[in-house]
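Here is one chain, start to finish.
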Amino acid sequence: MFSQETKAEKQPLIPILKILEHNYDISFSYADAIVKDKTTSAIIGKALSLEEVLSLIEKETGLKFKILNNRFIAITSPQLNVQNKQNALNALNVQELDEVSISNFLTSGISKTGTGTVNIKPKGFGILPGLIEPDILQTIQALPGILSNNETVSTLNVRGGTHNQNLILWDGIKMYQSGHFFGLISGFSPYLTKSVLVAKNGTSAAFGDGVSSTIDIQLDDNINTDFTSGLGVNLLYADGFVKIPLNHNLEIQASLRHSVTGLKTPTYDQFFDRILQNSDITDGQTNPDKTISIDDTFYFYDFGIKILHDISEKDKLRFNFITMFNTLDYLEKDNSTAIENISNSGISQSNLAAGLSYNRQWSDRLSTDIHFYSSNYTLNATDSDVTNNQRLIQQNEVLDTGIRVQADYILSDNLKWTNGYQYTEVGITNFQDINTPAFTSNIKEVLRTHSEYSEISFLSNSKKTVLRAGLRSNYFDKFNKLILEPRLSFTQQLFKHVKVEVLGEYKNQTTSQRVNSQNDFLGIDERRWVLANNTTIPVIQSKQASIGLHYDKNKLFLSAEAFYKQVNGIKTRSQGFQNQFQFINAIGSYRVKGIDFLVNKRFTNTSAWLSYSLSNNDYTFSTLNNGEAFPNNLDIRHTVTFAGTYSINNLKFALGVNWRSGKAITEPVKGNEVFDGAINYSSPNSSNLDDYFRTDFSTTYDFNFTKKTKAKIGLSIWNVFNRNNSLNRLYILEDDNTVSEVETASLGITPNLSFRVNF
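Its structure:
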């Protein structure tokens, strides 16, 4: 913060403005000419209010600060002519296109923007039921239309789509791994993250890939003036972060997290049992002829770093790097013979990514950005069968590299024009090796894509009309194929407190995940990435549209949004069938129609909300089920969430109830379960699991650990009533020609404790 306790040497105004933007979470709009030669004697010291700081600078510089709203402040000079004043506001108008229109949406730190996206800011995050850390991908599931059918962040289903149909970006780099503990918690540190933009529809033309949603994780891009750091620990991991400004134009930001699984906490035990149930490990434990000992050989970690260098007032250079890693090793001992026979099995999963970007502000109207990036994902497993002396090695690797060049030009007070080009090269390898009988398979595919995009953003003078319209073209040189993708986001204020929102988009993706066998990768992670070849694996294409009405008055927000989504080119192997279609290769589509409702009432210390989603999700495969539509594997018709948060001083509480109808499954025909040596299934997905019901609770308390150190303690309880929810059910034909059920159960009651200090 700032004070004027002693006479200080004057310093340039621009760095001081950056400090103000960071400390007060505001944004200044100004012409470079009016501030570049200004100085101020404001120094860091005893806290002053924002108004006091601005008043002080006004007296010293002769500038005028016009507070337009709680986020934006325009800087003008009485000596400037009218045209220069208007130029100073041009950038502001464009910025507001993507800025917050409804703040503290559900809880603090979550906001809905004027372009239909939701903005999550971990730094200002309040509290949600079951969460004591701002877990990015768990937080997203609080939004209507987004859930995980099996409680993991690696299976986010956005309006009926599979997880691999979500584009997840970490500071502009596509990530192919999203979680730790094989999907039970997010793999991204929230403490380097500035904001997370979530778009279910109406995505900007700047984004390709991801036919279901875009999750854009953005790191802090401004150089801070203060050294900040933090340490935290809970019953799953310990973490720390640091932001080190080396001087006024250079900063290093870093975060590290590592599991504390060696402690074998109750939380760890619950997570371990949940993720490993029905895998090769637990199957071995139930076999009396074998024992499997699992030592402290499971662990995970992630490390991220960003280097920020402002070469000049107009030139910025940024470098970022992230690595996340999970590994599990175990021993298998054969007790059926007198000779000791022990083998090693295990699985590891990692994603390394790096990027380098250069931004140039050519003038008040024109800026350019160039970004180089690379993302490398690997999944390795060794499965040793000591009884049969067999060893299976499986590997899946993705290497995604590319470059993106973008130019933004302010055409007028109300219009911004964005143009860009993106080149990507994706290579995917799938390798298998079996020693008995000897078999090796190594398949590698490479695809290069050239994309161009152009987009216009418009904001009316009255701020009642927001429009973003664009077109993206994608050319695949290997297929000599061109796909055009129009995008639209339109918001119009109809009445004082009522807005209508229209969103639409065409999108495609060339990468997807498939399941060859339910025992792939030890049964822990059955999915492997594959690349489109335009024949047996087509390019997946989607089109969707939605229209919504939003009412916001006196901290009461009402929303109703109807949507339609059609996705073509999906493979049966990518959908995880566990019925009569499990080993069939077919190409088809799915169609989702539905409505999302939300009621959110916010008080001074309380926020309560009720959300309801109704959707109908059907497959169509011309060669399956006589070409007739049948329920999607992810068809969950009804989803309801009722939750609330309450804060009193530094103490916060959150309680929430989640209910949804059971997902579709296929059961054997009762009384005639086996026919011709195979399971005799009924009509595909004609049955449903029991309804899912879960209650979560969390509480946190903030206090001053020392005069300069803030601390927080937290307690969360997932599934308070220990409800036994069924997440999946499949059927296996036994050797005696009978059919047995294999059930996947949800997490039981799972407590977690946390302690965190920030310096």
